[in-house]
Design goal:
homodimer; about 210 residues; disordered C terminus; DNA-binding
DNA sequence: TGAGAAAACGAACGATCGTGCTATTATTTC
DNA sequence: GAAATAATAGCACGATCGTTCGTTTTCTCA
């Protein structure tokens, strides 16, 4: 049975999560969240043992949502390239789903130079996600969709880079063509992954002085 | 002649800029900057008419530095691909130059949902920079280094995406291979730009339900 | 329905925020 | 070197921060 306390805690976290997407984890304020859910500061605070605890719970809630919205439905798609396409589609939808875009990207830039439990949790969640992406690429290789010599970690890197750029162009620059550019970049990445090793073996020439 | 006030203002901005790279523009605090440069809060504040003014000046100072460190030296390189390589090299160096990485990326994620003059200035600086990148690509096309049908704006998008991913992997995940991954991605982008239109014309198939 | 537990509130705390003032130093200029 | 000016410091303000605590309301279940 679901108690009253758990219910309001869920409401608080939902609200705080949306606020985090626009204000960031550091931008979160007990007072502002309380105002938003129409509770007293102390009434809200009673559900958490500290502000950091609230932030950690917001992060955990976001991970749950992400898993449910992006990963889980993609696993119902056929292995290999179709599943990867589904991951990307869901990922882009996740970006759009919240008022301020992806919570993790927002948090990443605040926490990248702030050691602590908050940062550690975020890093580990990000590593998990990147592993999932690389794993999905490995499956695509096994299925014969991608080239056998594909560097799957590099694939994950470049896939992530596309989403990061989408976030940047869409949210900061408000570029209406951002989504199309992301898809173009993705298509090009997939194309290149089908016949790997082309550019990858070229050495990077330094710009001469 | 350079007056005392201008000199300390320069010191303040230098310091505030470094702090911004790790704490962000919103994380900046009159008190913390004052403590860092060992001045009184009010003594420091006298140089600016408001906190927002300080932030704006930090942003302007960062743009100046970026121009001096990244763009200017690249213009001394031969037109076309060599210049683009120089831009990327300098850009990566700029990332490393400050304690917390690129100021603009840090600011971008804080400001993307906060309308105001601060945001407007950042956006316009970013647009300028993207135009420069696309322009550099256009020159490379004219020089025959890149394919005639290259989408230069798309090139700028994907080049930016590589740096964004570098920032993410290097600063948040502390991935020691981040720089190498960025270079690999860049090499692959250049390779693909030499013979464009391959993947770009493929349609992006939706993941079927 | 009434006793006991859970949940929400109100008020207050010390600290720090951005921002004014007024005084006190440094620096420039004649 | 004195007068004028610029630069810095000290202090105080209202507001808000995270947090504590005692009280009151609301819920739960015998």
């Amino acid at each position: 049975m679901v108690t009253k306390g758990e219910e309001t805690r869920r409401i608080i976290l939902d609200c705080a999560m949306a606020m985090t997407s626009t204000l960031g984890l550091e931008g979160l304020t007990i007072g502002s969240v309380a105002r938003e859910v129409e509770m007293s500061k102390s009434g809200l605070f009673a559900h958490f043992e500290s502000k950091q605890d609230l932030q950690l719970q917001v992060l955990a809630a976001a991970v749950d949502r992400f898993t449910g919205m992006v990963i889980a439905p993609a696993l119902r798609q056929p292995r290999g390239e179709p599943r990867i396409r589904a991951l990307v589609e869901n990922w882009l939808a996740w970006e759009e789903w919240m008022p301020g875009g992806c919570v993790f990207i927002a948090a990443a830039n605040e926490l990248d130079d702030r050691p602590g439990e908050l940062r550690d949790r975020l890093v580990s969640a990000q590593r998990d996600w990147l592993d999932s992406l690389a794993h999905a690429a490995r499956i695509a290789v096994r299925e014969g969709h991608f080239a056998a010599d594909l560097d799957c970690e590099q694939f994950a890197y470049q896939l992530y880079s596309i989403i990061l750029a989408y976030h940047h162009f869409h949210r900061l620059l408000r570029d209406p063509g951002a989504r199309e550019r992301a898809r173009t970049a993705f298509t090009s990445l997939v194309e290149q992954s089908r016949s790997a090793d082309t550019a990858r073996t070229l050495s990077f020439r330094e710009a001469s002085p």
